């Protein structure tokens, strides 16, 4: 039986009857019905009614090599026939996670050489939290267990992921967060910088918020700081240039581990394999998922720095943690084929040298002067457009979050998949986009903004 036997209305009715979607107002969705995406090719997805949509979100920040890659399907097929599954518990291993771990050690920052697998970014962050707490126990400092994070951070949707994240709506529904996690100011200049404050001064002030939290708790109580190099789901918030070097300096000064969440920024999005390399930092853990397989298989890899890994492997004692699908052979085979494509097609160099700088330029030229646009910003192939009611004062529309949804809906109707988060429009296209694709997207966004202006400014 295939979906072609069903009409859209029938599929929507079944969807409403049986399928609870992630991050959804279920009552609302039942009224509206889902858009059925039924196939995809290159940079495009197609819905059940035949509409072709340019996917400026790469699925959900993950399809970095684009859709329809036969090499990835073949890698999965071959591995499934040879060995579809075996676990890596009880002194067993399978070859593909081993070869992938070696490859990841090769492309990661120099001091990062070990890998712990899971199936999602959330799982990887759970692993990271358990691992760094275990690290301090093995170091004889069990009281060093507090983690500092940031408001507006997104680190996943499990209990630990939500606790690490700084999304207030998610925290309100937690009813009991993982203890000893505190959240400080995000390095988000558009809303948090003082009038006239330079980028550098704001970067130092945002980093000082982390140091203040360390000093408040006492450095002997603080295990780690966690952050996304560029906050993704929170609205592509790009920190001041000096922020990460200063955070690293502060962490080293107080002997606090640096946990970097590269679930979105990993595997080429910023024009380097990892944003840590773009910012010149050497983290103790790097959480990765999504583009590790370009989304073709669920797989995450927590990359573990030498300091943490050495303590774990030298001091020993069982680390009571792991997942059935840790090091899944099929997912790892697809990841190897995916990294191969990224390398062979020079996609990272293209982002760094060509499409990344081009996106930054045309975002400004094509959209910067639009009356609804308070700011455009980008880094590699991640971009954001701040939607405002008044350009000069940066005043937002009421109610908060509504205006960006209006722009987003016009964009989708005009054939472009973008996302609205709060009052910010965000994009994160596949790395296969060319200058021409970027130009096409800019025209569509401009049209969507014009239509939204007619709705919002009347
Ligand atoms: N960390 C970051 C930075 C993310 O953006 C996400 C997902 N968007 C996650 C963690 C969680 O990943 P997953 O949805 O695969 O659990």
The major sheet is characterized as: 7 strands, mixed
Q: How many domains would you count in the coordinates?
A: 2
CATH class group of the largest domain: Alpha Beta
Instruction: Enter the CATH topology name of the largest domain.
Output: Aspartate Aminotransferase, domain 2
Q: Helicity range of the residues?
A: 40-55%
Low-confidence stretches: none
**First-last Cα distance:** 49 Å
CATH architecture name of the largest domain: 3-Layer(aba) Sandwich
Mean pLDDT: 97
List ligands, each type once. Answer: 4'-deoxy-4'-aminopyridoxal-5'-phosphate
Binned strand content: 15-25%
Shape: globular
Count of runs of 4 or more consecutive helical residues: 17
Structural class: alpha/beta
The count of β-strands is: 15
Instruction: Please state the CA-atom Rg, rounded to the nearest Å.
Output: 22 Å
GO molecular function: transaminase activity
InterPro entries: Aminotrans_3, PyrdxlP-dep_Trfase, PyrdxlP-dep_Trfase_major, PyrdxlP-dep_Trfase_small
Pfam families: Aminotran_3 (PF00202)
Family: Belongs to the class-III pyridoxal-phosphate-dependent aminotransferase family.
Could you please describe the fold and organization of this structure?
This is Aspartate aminotransferase family protein. GO terms for molecular function: transaminase activity. This protein has 458 residues and is α/β, with parallel strands linked by helices. The longest helix is centred in the last third of the chain and has 22 residues, at 435-456. Helix 16 (402-413) crosses helix 17 (435-456). Helix content is 43%, strand content 16%. The chain has two domains: 35-65 and 346-456, Aspartate Aminotransferase, domain 1; 71-344, Aspartate Aminotransferase, domain 2, CATH 3.40.640.10. It is globular. The model has no long low-confidence stretch (mean pLDDT 97). A seven-stranded mixed beta sheet has the order 4-10-9-8-7-5-6, sandwiched between helices. Strands 1-2-3-13 form a four-stranded mixed beta sheet. Strands 11-12-15-14 form a four-stranded antiparallel beta sheet, covered by helices on one side. The chain has helices spanning 8-18, 26-32, 58-61, 70-82, 95-107, 121-138, 159-164, 168-172, 189-192, 199-217, 243-253, 275-278, 306-315, 329-344, 347-367, 402-413, 435-456; strands at 37-41, 44-47, 52-55, 112-118, 146-150, 181-184, 222-227, 257-261, 285-288, 300-305, 373-379, 382-387, 416-417, 419-421, 424-427. Strand 8 (257-261), helix 12 and strand 9 (285-288) form a beta-alpha-beta unit. The protein binds 4'-deoxy-4'-aminopyridoxal-5'-phosphate.
């Amino acid at each position: 039986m295939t979906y072609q036997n069903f009409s859209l209305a029938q599929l929507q009715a079944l969807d409403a009857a049986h399928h609870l979607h992630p991050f959804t107002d279920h009552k609302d969705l039942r009224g509206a019905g889902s858009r059925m995406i039924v196939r995809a090719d290159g940079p495009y997805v197609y819905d059940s009614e035949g509409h072709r949509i340019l996917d400026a979100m790469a699925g959900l920040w993950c399809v970095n090599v684009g859709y329809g890659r036969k090499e990835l399907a073949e890698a999965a097929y071959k591995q499934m026939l040879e060995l579809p599954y075996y676990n890596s518990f009880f002194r067993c291993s399978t070859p593909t996670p081993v070869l992938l771990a070696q490859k990841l050690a090769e492309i990661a920052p120099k001091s990062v050489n070990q890998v712990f697998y899971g199936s999602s970014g959330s799982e990887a962050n759970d692993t990271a939290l358990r691992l760094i707490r275990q690290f301090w126990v093995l170091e004889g400092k069990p009281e060093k267990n507090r983690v500092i994070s940031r408001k507006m951070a997104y680190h996943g949707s499990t209990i630990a992921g939500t606790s690490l994240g700084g999304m207030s709506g998610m925290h309100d529904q937690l009813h009991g967060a993982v203890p000893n996690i505190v959240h400080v100011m995000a390095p988000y200049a558009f809303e948090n910088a003082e009038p006239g404050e330079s980028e550098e001064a704001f970067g130092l002030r945002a980093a000082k918020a982390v140091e203040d939290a360390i000093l408040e708790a006492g450095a002997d109580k603080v295990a780690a700081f966690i952050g996304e190099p560029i906050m993704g789901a929170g609205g592509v918030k790009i920190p001041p240039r000096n922020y990460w070097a200063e955070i690293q300096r502060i962490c080293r000064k107080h002997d606090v581990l640096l946990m970097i969440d590269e679930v979105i920024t990993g595997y080429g999005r910023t024009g380097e394999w990892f944003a840590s390399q773009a910012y010149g930092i050497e983290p103790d853990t790097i959480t990765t998922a999504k583009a590790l397989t370009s989304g073709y298989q669920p797989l995450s890899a927590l990359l573990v720095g030498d300091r943490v890994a050495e303590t774990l492997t030298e001091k020993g004692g069982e680390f009571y943690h792991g997942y059935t699908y840790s090091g899944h052979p099929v997912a790892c085979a697809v990841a190897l084929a995916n990294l191969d494509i990224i390398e062979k097609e020079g996609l990272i160099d293209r982002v760094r040298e060509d499409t990344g700088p081009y996106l930054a330029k045309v975002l400004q030229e094509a959209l910067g002067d639009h009356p609804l646009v308070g700011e455009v910003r980008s880094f590699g192939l991640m971009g954001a457009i701040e939607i405002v009611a008044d350009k000069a004062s940066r005043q937002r529309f009421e109610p908060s979050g509504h205006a960006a949804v209006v722009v987003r809906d016009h964009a989708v109707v005009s054939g472009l998949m973008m996302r609205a988060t709060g009052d910010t429009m965000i994009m994160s296209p596949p790395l296969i986009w060319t200058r021409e694709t970027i130009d096409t997207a800019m025209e569509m966004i401009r049209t969507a903004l014009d239509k939204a202006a007619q709705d919002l400014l009347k």
